[in-house]
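Supplementary Methods, section 5.1.

A reviewer requested that the exact input to the structure prediction be made available. We therefore reproduce it here, unchanged from the version used in the analyses.
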Amino acid sequence: MSGRRTFRAPGRVNLIGEHTDYNQGFVLPAALALECRVSAARTSDNRLTVRSLNLKEERSWPLDEFARHQDWSDYVAGVALELIEMGVGPVAADLEIESTIPIGAGLSSSAALEVAVALALCALDGARLDPVEIAEACQRAESNFVGLKCGIMDQMIALLGRRDHALWLDCETLNYHTVPLPPGCALVMVNSMVKRELASSEYNRRHQECDSAAAHLGHSLREATLAECEKLPDPERRRARHVVSENARVEQFVAACRAGDLTTAGRLLYASHASLRDDYEVSCPELDFLVEAARPIEGVIGARLTGGGFGGSTVNLVRSAAVPEFQTRISTAYREHFGVEPAIYACATADGAGEVVA
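The structure derived from this sequence is encoded token-by-token as follows.
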């Protein structure tokens, strides 16, 4: 096969605004210099074939029958199907996937895969879709084919990220703008190495509980007030309270970043974690430990769990000069407490997805 083209999409960390995206709220993710790459070429065999170089596995489908395999390849098939519904393809192609985004770390390896595959299939077909159309197709693929009722944040940041910036996103209108990150600070992810089997089912349950809360109120949680939330039965009351308070924290965090007020920014990160732990109940002992262990380390501005929860990573806003000491101390504390070495990623931010030009 000749004429291979390569496309990349970054992982992401969400600074603040967790579990608000599927509630039509506000989020503030940043794209990371960890990425999924898809090398693609057209074929003549009327099939879509994909290989994971990381997992050393291959899957293949006839273009008229995309069966589920209940594994990583469902993201690929789901994207192909959604694009076909939009008039893109079907494309007979050979895809090779390689990723530096750790799976299960809460850094959105799945959305990066979806977006890189979508860009590849669109390019091979000669189709031109705008970033929002691609993001929406990838979100539908994950919801409809994979079965995880996700919001659109991960796909949007994978496409629209900008180096040294976060992306403020309104998940109802899909309006967005970039927010400069505080100078002299780094984003450090600490992977708890915990992978919860119940994460997907509990994620969908939280989605259902929020839908129930919105139905009780007669409008979306984006429009709710804290006073309204207190009138709901549990657990809807606590789920809604998290969403409403988290939306406010996103706006306050953006203002703090623009004002250079790192004290307020840090306070908001810790408050977000407490809300996710107590009201949304998606934390775990390992994540709680990592957040509390970060507090006394010099140079740490704030910390919270990031991603869906039940495991995965914390995001830590740390003064750049303090990163080496932070890495040493947090690793030692976690290893001594749990007997596990955490994976730590002091990541640069990155631009959004696109074709890799040699």
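The first helix runs from residue 73 to 85. These observations are discussed further in the main text.
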